[in-house]
Amino acid sequence: GSGYGAAILSRLCRKVYGIERIQPLANRARETLESLGYDNVEVKCGDGFEGWQEKAPFDVIILGAAPTEIPEQLKHQLADGGRLIAPIGDLQQQLVILEKSGTTFNESTGTPVRFVPMKSGKVSTEERTK
Question: String of b and e for 40-78 (b: at least 16 CB within 10 Å)?
Fold first, then answer.
């Protein structure tokens, strides 16, 4: 939403791509990051479950919200040797690290975590007014 995570990651990575599904939040993040001089971050409004195919493959994908399972499209947007780090689950969530090696995916679980649920699809009018 605010772009804070993208700003932190921009200091550790050459390029950061962020996806926010609520247009006003995507606009705010983009404007804030640009005004603060973060020139290696791109933000788009979209569905995080779909990823950003045009910019793939990615060395790392980090989810800031919890899906109930790792979205297939994101797995296939990883570069060979890439990692996806995500909180997975509903009420009981685990941090999951998925590593891609060729056409194989190796998954390991980490510590229990608590993130907001990851949502997909069109943003409701109710969500737009929050």
Answer: ebbbebebbbebbeeebebeebebbebbeebbeebeebb
pTM score: 0.89
Residue for token pair 């609520």: 22
C-alpha distances in angstroms, 58 versus 12, 79, 84, 119, 120?
15, 5, 9, 21, 21
Residue 9: count of CB within 10 angstroms of its CB: 18
Contact in structure between 84 and 61 (CB atoms under 8 Å): yes
Q: CB under 8 Å to 104, separation ≥6 — which residues?
A: none
SS3 56: coil
Please give the structure tokens belonging to residue 90. 């509903």
| Segment 39-87, tens digit of pLDDT | 999 999 999 999 999 999 999 999 999 999 999 999 999 999 999 999 9
**Residue 113 in tokens:** 């975590």
Secondary element (H or E) of residue 64: none
Strand-pair partners of 109: 96
H-helix or E-strand spanning residue 28: helix 23-35
